């Protein structure tokens, strides 16, 4: 098991509050060193803030961009690669996001399109669809959408980007990368019952140990510990694909019948581990961050609708999903409506990180050339269904 991220949340008084940012960066470094002495590989450390509208109140577009470029300079000076400025709630602020991402490299952010208390925010959802579309045309190869998502019913304290945001006093959380645990558990399982038992034992062993170290860090540095996002996040390692781990149970390829049942099993295990959980704490199925998921998508064993179905029992929603460059704003809106409706109906955090690829059609291969993503055939946003005969 690897640690994908140690994420420290802070509340800024201004975007140039470098002292507080530096303090968080120092804690992240010390926490990483401590965890590495315990034998963990820590891939990234990250900082997340409250919604940027709170430290840029009433600013004009020019003033927002000017201040966030100063924040970007602070990130560069401190060698920070992952900095999240929280979420935007209003259509006016959401519409600024393409310009922010175009002018920065380290900054991530999200929009809020609904929650359980207030329902779907249709105006913000529409603005988010427009923003996804604009980012795809206004950043190089549309890659700015890697740093943006539309989120529904997402709480503060999620360690994973871009949905992460913070509230209150400084605190930290931990996000995992643990597809190898799934592979280990399912490789020695002959039935679903055995799979659930084996995964529970393996997961509990690792997470209880990790929580002991996290609690020690919290006490030593006098910082609040928000918990572990125990989501089963994948890696780019071909041998530890989530999709291939599913297939070790003998129910066919990922996407075939049985995929939903296995997804539900994994989430049941995660929810009953006796540690402090935070964030999504479900199953992540980011299409372009897992070799097997990308391969099965390219083979057509599952589609966009299937991913939404799996999100009903697990998951964080639709993540790193490649879409054709000519997708309309209305089609993106419809996808976001489904995500938000599911999140609110089931009272669970879901988000959508969608990648319209400029100049590419459904069925063509992506060309990300990115260390963070694997190539995949582009999804058809409206897959055809064969009529019954």
Automatic annotation (TrEMBL):
InterPro entries: UPF0210
Protein name per UniProt: DUF711 family protein
Organism: Laspinema palackyanum D2a
Lineage, broadest ranks: Bacteria, Bacillati, Cyanobacteriota, Cyanophyceae, Oscillatoriophycideae
């Amino acid at each position: 098991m690897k640690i994908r991220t140690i994420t420290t949340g802070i509340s800024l008084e201004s975007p140039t509050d470098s002292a507080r940012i530096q303090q968080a960066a120092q804690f992240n470094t010390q926490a990483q060193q401590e965890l590495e002495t315990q034998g963990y590989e820590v891939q990234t450390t990250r900082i997340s803030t409250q919604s940027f509208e709170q430290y840029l109140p009433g600013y004009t577009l020019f003033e927002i961009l000017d201040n966030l470029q100063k924040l970007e300079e602070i990130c560069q000076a401190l060698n920070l690669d992952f900095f999240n400025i929280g979420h935007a709630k209003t259509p006016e602020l959401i519409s600024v996001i393409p310009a922010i991402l175009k002018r920065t490299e380290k900054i991530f952010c999200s929009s809020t399109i609904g929650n359980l208390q207030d329902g779907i925010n249709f105006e913000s959802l529409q603005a988010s669809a427009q923003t996804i579309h604009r980012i795809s045309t206004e950043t190089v190869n549309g890659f700015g959408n890697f740093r943006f998502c539309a989120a529904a019913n997402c709480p503060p304290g999620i360690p994973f980007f871009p949905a992460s945001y913070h509230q209150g006093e400084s605190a930290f959380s931990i996000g995992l990368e643990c597809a190898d645990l799934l592979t280990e558990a399912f490789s020695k399982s002959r039935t679903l019952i055995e799979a659930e038992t084996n995964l529970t034992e393996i997961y509990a062993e690792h997470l209880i140990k990790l929580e002991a170290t996290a609690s020690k860090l919290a006490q030593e540095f006098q910082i609040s510990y928000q918990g572990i996002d125990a989501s089963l996040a994948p890696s780019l390692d071909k041998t530890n694909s989530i999709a291939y781990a599913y297939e070790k149970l003998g129910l066919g390829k990922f996407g075939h019948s049985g995929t939903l049942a296995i997804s539900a099993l994994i989430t049941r295990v995660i929810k009953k581990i006796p540690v402090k959980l935070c964030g999504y704490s479900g199953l992540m199925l980011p299409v372009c961050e897992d070799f097997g998921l990308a391969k099965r998508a390219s083979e057509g064993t599952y589609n966009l609708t299937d991913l939404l179905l799996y999100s009903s029992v697990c998951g964080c929603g639709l993540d790193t999903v490649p879409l054709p460059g000519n997708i309309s704003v209305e089609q993106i809106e419809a996808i976001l409506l489904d995500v938000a409706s599911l999140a609110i109906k089931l009272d669970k955090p879901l988000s959508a990180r969608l990648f319209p690829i400029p100049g590419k059609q459904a069925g063509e291969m992506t060309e990300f050339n990115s260390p963070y993503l694997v190539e995949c055939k582009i999804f058809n946003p409206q897959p055809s269904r064969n009529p019954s005969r």
